[in-house]
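Input:
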Amino acid sequence: MVIFRKSIFYVIMSVFCLIWIYPFLWMVSASFKSQNEFFTNGLSLIPESFTFENIIRAWNEANFEQYFINSVVITVGTIVIVLFTTATCGYALGRYDFKGKKVVYLLLIASMFVPMEFAIIPIYDLIKAMGLMNTRLGVILAESGGNHIIFILLFATFFAKIPKELEEAAVMDGSGFFRTFFTVMLPLSKPVVGSVVIMQFIWSWNSFLLPLILTLNEPDARPLSVGLYALRGENIVDWTGIAAGGTIAILPIIVIFLLLQRYFVDGIAGSVKG
Amino acid sequence: MKNTVSSITTTATRATEKRKPRKKRTMKNEVWCWLFLAPTLLLFAMFQGWPIMASWYYAMLDWSGLTPDSTFVGMQNFINVAKDPYFWNAFKNSFKFMLGTVPFHLIIALVLAVILHRPGLKASNLFRTFIFLPVVTTTSIVGIIMVFIWGSDGAVNDSLFKLGILDQPINWLGDATWSMFTVILISVWKNLGVNLIYWLAGLQSIPKDLYEAADVDGASGTRKFFHITVPLLIPIGTIILLLNVVNSLKAFDLIKTMTNGGPFFATDVVSTYIYRYAFTSEMGLPQLGYASAAGLFFAVTIIIIAIIQSIVTKRMKGGNQ
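Output:
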């Protein structure tokens, strides 16, 4: 009886999960269908005429090669900046007492509840004034300037827990503040670095509003999230092409998530526990 | 590294003797601390501090953004925003969207979390991965794909037709009576996984011996849920609620890509309203000042809600003690 109930539970959960991810299964399968098959048999999940034509068309003709490169550049650039700034900030906040520390904390935490989406026009104007409109660097800077208090807190709580003696020993060995951080402390914080890298990867890869408004007039600077939206605006009927573009954009992130999900889930969970 | 670790104990004893030179070092450290904070504070000032302050100034300008000339109009933009029925339509829709998504997020995610948290459920992590998957995918792209899946020829209509529930296809996103419902449903699907992780984190923090003690007393599953699980989840629950309320009021990507606020403004929320005025020529020349005013109006509303909520929860906590 228990086994029976258990297997029913597993069957229900499996069907539920399958329906849950159906949109992605459909998208990947449609991107390998010929356009003829799409019209006659658009909903089936296994393409009969397995073709790479859509992917190739999206990559070469619909500019997805450029979009992909842009997504990678923007994502990597943002990760590097965010990792550097949040690690150093978290280290100073988590490990040292100094005047004004409380104010900094308060400022950063309060800004978490300020919806920056509604103050985006000055950001747009600032990037424009810096001469970075329609460039990837502009998008990278604006994204790095977003709120990363979660990462700062993750680093701060981690560094606060490292025993004082460890760093005093390093200081005894003649290592200064800067070197202690980079040679002793940062290497210890690998788990936090992992969480920050994957979380920021996913956020940057998926971000839409900032790159949308910062690349309004320059298709060659757009990341995938904006590129596909523009493609759909121009071409509403080419659904296999759109599905192929979607697959190019989403598959990398799904693979990376499946490989590194532990870090991601830990990071998300840590953000509400703290 | 090994050397460092082995010298820990000796350093610990020595540390007490080494008090004198400390003051100098703390001064030096204080300078280093601010240097370490500098990159974050610089970015913060540029992309958060400045925009928040500058928005107020921008909001008082009549300015297209295309040319440098702008006229100072004082509070006129705010007055115009308050007079525009389309703004209030978007305002109302933002709250509709919030009230439609947040309860689902909290309740369904909690139920799923309790199911998946059962000890001995071996596939728990696998199910969790599946449910979490939509969260990590690009929202704007999911929105575009959903236009087909919920479209006239899409899988949703096809399944409902085959099940005999529908006799003709519904244009879920294109029909003003259904569009908000559909947008809410898709948004719940997209973000449920995050809330599942939040609740699971909460469940894991409940000490197991509480349940064991309840088992000894012979408490049933539902009793345990309402007398142990729910009360202990309230602190984390208030944080989850606040995050969901703020995030749902900010929603942009999904609505922009699926309906663009349509049909006939039925799903137009404040974020798409602002975008239309600031960055498109749908309403004639862009009006950055007017859009800033609308954005500030709504941002202040959200902040007030956040403050009220945290005061209420503090009161409730105080009352319980």
